[in-house]
Amino acid sequence: MSRKGIGQTLRTSDSDHGTGSRRSDCRSPIPYLFLKKIIVDEDLPTEDRMNKAIADYLSNNGYNNALNEFMKEADMPAEIDKKYGGLLEKKWTSVIRLQKKVMDLEAKLADAEKEYIAGAPSRDKRSPIEWVPRPPEKYSLSGHRAPVTRVIFHPVFSIMATSSEDATIKIWDYEAGDFERTLKGHQDSVQDLAFDQTGKWLVSCSADMSIKLWDFQAYECVKTMHGHDHNVSSVQFMPSGDFIISASRDKTIKMWEVATGYCVKTLTGHREWVRSVRVNPDGSLLASCSNDQTVRVWVVSTKECKVELREHDHVVECVEWAPESANSAICEGAGSDVSLKTRSSFQPE
Q: Bridge-partner residues for 235, per DSSP?
């Protein structure tokens, strides 16, 4: 259906509501400017998806005459898929959030320009102790019925996801402090979560020995991956988004293909529960840590353990790659004058 067709449908609905004057265009159920914004939104992949979202909006708000005219012109089926419920409002809200982010980034850019001109950070009005968050908190979000195991931010929208030992995943709007929805499917504690770089996919792992891939636009589980023999404790997307890495209490690390859900690689070497696994920025290396008190670095292409680090005296629960820009700060904090050369040391041959 063309943009013109949508506009005509709305004008017809105005007359159906008894507001046929020129001024009544501003009182239509969905202002034309609002529709135009949604139509050009690249996040909505198909015209059919847009039509269903608009029809759902009209239906939920009681604009029955407008809905009937719209469905006739759009040649839509009588029933509207429930998964499109609230999609129109959500997309519009996302536009507003992005506008706010743009304004915030412009303000930060202006501050950065001032700092560059001054030759140093402009912290004149703040002491260092004020840089760290202090109580009271902005929001306290409650809803899980057991301990929360993971909190992650969406890479695009002002949304965060949390996992819990109550076997659920909850989605929150952290700017408004509102709960949005619950994702159910796991049968035991959800241990870890990760978004891909686009924010369209969410992956979760659980003590039920499964990994689930969620379509974060429809909030549906599209794949469940089985293969680990014990609690799956860590999960992450590869930078390309085509593969998922997982670590488990069965002492293994596995790589899964997103398109098929098949396990394509298994890395073995740890002698105890592998607590966490993380991929480096270019996707060539993995770092893992374990109850065996070691940290290992793996070459993805060959599954070879490149180096085993042994300095901890107890369980190693978490591992993360530091950006190269942090090298000097890490050396300074460690009291070392020698620059870090981990990247060149760990590069695959």
A: 246
Task: Kindly report the three-state secondary structure assignment for every residue of the chain.
Answer: CCHHHHHHHHHHHHHHCCCCCHHHHHHCCCCHHHHHHHHCCCCCCCHHHHHHHHHHHHHHCCCHHHHHHHHHHHCCCCCCCHHHCCHHHHHHHHHHHHHHHHHHHHHHHHHHHHHHHHCCCCCCCCCHHHCCCCCCCCCCCCCCCCCEEEEEECCCCCEEEEEECCCEEEEEECCCCEEEEEEECCCCCEEEEEECCCCCEEEEEECCCEEEEEECCCCEEEEEEECCCCCEEEEEECCCCCEEEEEECCCEEEEEECCCCCEEEEEECCCCCEEEEEECCCCCEEEEEECCCCEEEEECCCCEEEEEECCCCCCCCCCCCCCHHHHHHHHHHHCCCCCCCHHHHHCCC
Is the Cβ–Cβ distance between 248 and 230 less than 8 Å?
A: yes
CA dihedral 14, 20, 26, 27 (to 10 degrees): -50
Q: How far apart are alpha carbons 305 and 183 in whole angstroms?
A: 36
Determine contact, residues 48/15, Cβ cutoff 8 Å.
no
Q: How far is CA 133 from the centre of its chain?
A: 23
Distance CA 258, CA 213 (A): 8
Name 39's Cβ contacts closer than 8 Å, sequence gap at least 6.
3, 6, 50
pLDDT above 90 covers a percentage of the chain that reads 52
In this predicted model, what pLDDT tens digit does every residue of 154-202 receive, in sequence order?
999 999 999 999 999 999 999 999 999 999 999 999 999 999 999 999 9
Summarised one tens digit per residue, pLDDT across range 100-126 is: 889 989 988 887 787 667 655 555 555
Q: How far apart, in whole angstroms, are the C-alpha atoms of residue 158 and residue 147?
A: 23
